[in-house]
């Protein structure tokens, strides 16, 4: 995990409990920051420190990090870069900020990279127990998790997949567009499609794999056509969205909507009609 980091940064990270490290922020010539247990701190040679003692990655170190994370071939991840991220070997998703290059109206790539946001995936066994208990008391149904970024939606979806595989033996198709959702144990009856857009993954997966459940992450408005396709075929969908309110969901295609207040903490559970049920 995180072996693509420059030596100085990797040494600083080794002074932090990896199980509590959620995110790293590498900005060229700016203090190194990390999200540890939900709080941002500065990192220096010996771990957590003050801003004045923090490491300041060079622009070359930022570029070298991206190069190493891409398997030393940036061209092999151009499609990911067009979407603003790269996924490393262990499922670490790396957000990229720099100069966006266009080919006409289409994004070609990102160059002159100056900032990286490294999200560290975690398998938190049991964190989805409460969601499972409150949503599936009458059987497996479609669920949408709602929360701002960083509230544990992906981690809960991963554990929810594991629980359903272990307890029901249903065939579960994981549509992992960014290569992050499947970073961990999903269960013996899970199949994974990586790096395909949701409509492609759903359509091909339904035809080829005959899933009972499809799991995917970070729904955007244009992704609801894929969900609609699955629901019309009688397939349950577990998904997440960067939203705080049920009222803001573009299409009401789910049977349960769950707002989160942090990893494993449910705010409220709503039914298909938008009313609170738990």
What features would you describe in this structure?
Helices cover 24% and strands 30% of the residues. The protein is an alpha/beta fold. The chain folds into 2 domains: 7-119, 2-Layer Sandwich (Beta-Lactamase), CATH 3.30.450.90; 129-271, 3-Layer(aba) Sandwich (Rossmann fold), CATH 3.40.50.300. Helix 6 runs parallel beside helix 7 (224-232). The model has no long low-confidence stretch (mean pLDDT 92).
Give short descriptive properties of this protein.
278 residues; alpha/beta; Beta-Lactamase; Rossmann fold; 2 domains; seven-stranded antiparallel beta sheet; 7 helices; 14 strands
Describe the structure concisely for a colleague.
The protein has 278 residues and is α/β, with parallel strands linked by helices.
Count helical runs: 7
Specify the oligomeric state: single chain
Query: Structural class given helices, strands, pairing?
Result: alpha/beta
Give the count of structural domains.
2
Mean pLDDT: 92
The arrangement of helices and strands along the chain is: HEEEEHHEEEHEHEEHEHEEE
Main sheet characteristics: 7 strands, antiparallel
Q: Which fold does the CATH topology of the largest domain refer to?
A: Rossmann fold
CATH class of the largest domain: Alpha Beta
What is the CATH architecture descriptor of the largest domain?
Answer: 3-Layer(aba) Sandwich
Helix amount: 10-25%
Query: Which regions have little confidence, pLDDT < 50, spanning 5+ residues?
Result: none
């Amino acid at each position: 995990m995180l072996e693509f980091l420059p030596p100085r940064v990797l040494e600083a990270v080794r002074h932090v409990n990896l199980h509590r490290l959620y995110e790293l922020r590498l900005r060229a010539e700016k203090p190194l920051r990390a999200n540890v247990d939900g709080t941002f701190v500065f990192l220096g040679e010996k771990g957590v420190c003050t801003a004045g003692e923090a490491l300041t990655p060079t622009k070359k170190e930022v570029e070298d990090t991206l190069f190493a994370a891409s398997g030393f071939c940036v061209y092999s991840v151009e499609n990911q870069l067009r979407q603003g991220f790269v996924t490393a070997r262990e499922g670490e998703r790396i957000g990229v900020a720099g100069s966006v290059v266009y080919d006409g109206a289409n994004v070609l790539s990102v160059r002159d990279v100056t900032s990286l946001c490294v999200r560290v995936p975690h398998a938190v066994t049991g964190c989805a127990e409460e969601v499972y208990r409150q949503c599936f008391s009458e059987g497996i149904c479609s669920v949408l998790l709602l929360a701002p970024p960083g509230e544990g939606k992906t981690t809960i979806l991963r554990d929810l997949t594991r629980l359903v595989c272990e307890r029901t033996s249903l065939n579960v198709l994981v549509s992992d567009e960014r290569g992050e959702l499947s970073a961990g144990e999903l269960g013996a009856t899970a199949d994974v499609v990586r790096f395909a857009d949701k409509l492609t993954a759903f359509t091909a997966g339904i035809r080829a794999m005959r899933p009972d459940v499809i799991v995917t992450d970070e729904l955007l408005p244009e992704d609801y056509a894929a969900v609609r396709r699955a629901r019309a075929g009688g397939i349950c969908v577990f998904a997440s969205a960067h939203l705080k309110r049920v009222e803001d969901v573009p299409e009401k295609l789910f049977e349960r909507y769950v707002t989160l207040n942090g990893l494993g903490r449910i705010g409220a559970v709503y039914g298909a009609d938008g009313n609170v049920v738990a």
